[in-house]
């Protein structure tokens, strides 16, 4: 039985690990191997060959190197009676595969008449090519022609890679952008190219309409348009070819993903090497762009923070300055405040640098989603939160649709390492002088919503009801009020918690004792006893509407705290 790769990779697991390798299928077409045919392991026909070796001794495994094509007459595989040692040949094929050898070529007829079926089956399972070479072939000619083909191939590949690298470097030096880099790589390698954020949001791309249409209906795109990079940790089939994601990094920091879509063919080792060079150049450009974005983002963020905290100058100045930044804030808007949720108790602690990375990706996602709706929409990173001023209709009839569409696009399917977040939404404002109040309310909605609903909450300030008013009161004053109204029921004990639950049910059913008993699965007399006990603590709330109001408000305060 075949022993597959420990990492669970596909049978062609070492295809891309050798730069400048000639595919085995091409190697066996050289002049010295005319008439050679592949007997098994056809799936590995594209394994990269970087050298050749001749098997002269049975223990050849100690001398082979990865990506070699091993050729033999079969003589070292014979036993003492000059018969083929089948178990030894099976062990050899498995060992060659484990060592990363590109393939095994054997001359049949003189010492070995045929390759046993068990060996061929093993090779097919492994995807390890076994090639029959003509009996009249001289190994000296094989080595000479093979290395000549490798030198020619490697020279051609290096020239292509150097030309691509030079072209990409020129793009960077001349102030080009990621779209130009994607287009150049796509044209030279004849593949589709996307450059995305770490979590898969497209920044630039060069895809044909047909390939993009195929991508949109594939498993690799979520409903928000995000590329599911987490599904591309290694090459994945796509059409007759493949799709894969390469890391774009600089100084140990991941910056982006280079997505390659090759719908008609699988990528060769040389393609991957060229793409890695392209990723290096892209990293240089992204680093430069990030520096510019950081400066511009800070300038924009400082201005918007001043506006929202009522530290800016006159409304007219705010409008004009916003226009100079490309923002239109003189129209009906809602303020959206979005904050990453704190880590859960089971999550491992992370460094401040990692947390900063989370926030940077979060802010970048918001910028990309908002700017797709219109570059005149104001959005900024406030270090611990992202604030967006989304335009809506004057009557606010489309607020929910506008906000939910933006939130859904940012969240997507939550893949790609994105963090959960909560959002608060203000009421509609029609003038810049109302923005500070709207921002304060949206910020309060995030806080109250998270306390009410937990993480990943979306809270509209106008829907907070009485909590909207309570959120404006100091926490200490609320605590005093709860203690005065509920007395011992405000304590954090099992008995107090149980009685508060009964009290809430009674209020919910308008003091219908029979209905409350059914809801809590109590006997009617038990519920009557509880009502009497509660009134002995709180006063006659069943007959006094003022006491009942105070009790209901106190319970709401406790719910907010919980």
Structural account:
- It is built from 17 helices and 17 strands.
- It has 562 residues and is of the alpha+beta class.
- The strands form 4 sheets. Strands 2-7-6-5-4 form a 5-stranded mixed beta sheet, sandwiched between helices. A 5-stranded antiparallel beta sheet has the order 9-8-12-11-10.
- Helix 2 links the parallel strand 5 and strand 6 (103-107).
- Helix 4 runs antiparallel to helix 5 and helix 4 (139-173) runs parallel beside helix 7.
Name its key features.
single chain, 562 residues, alpha+beta, five-stranded mixed β-sheet, five-stranded antiparallel β-sheet, 46% helix, elongated
Counting DSSP E segments of at least 2 residues, the number of strands comes to 17
- C-alpha geometry: elongated
Q: What is the averaged pLDDT score?
A: 87
Please report the distance between the alpha carbons of the first and last residues.
Answer: 59 Å
- Rg from Cα: 35 Å
Number of alpha- plus pi-helical segments = 17
Spatial order of the strands in the main sheet?
A: 2-7-6-5-4
Helix content: 40-55%
Could you name the ranges where pLDDT drops below 50 across 5 or more consecutive residues?
Answer: 1-18
SS-derived structural category: alpha+beta
Biggest sheet details: 5 strands, mixed
Strand content: 15-25%
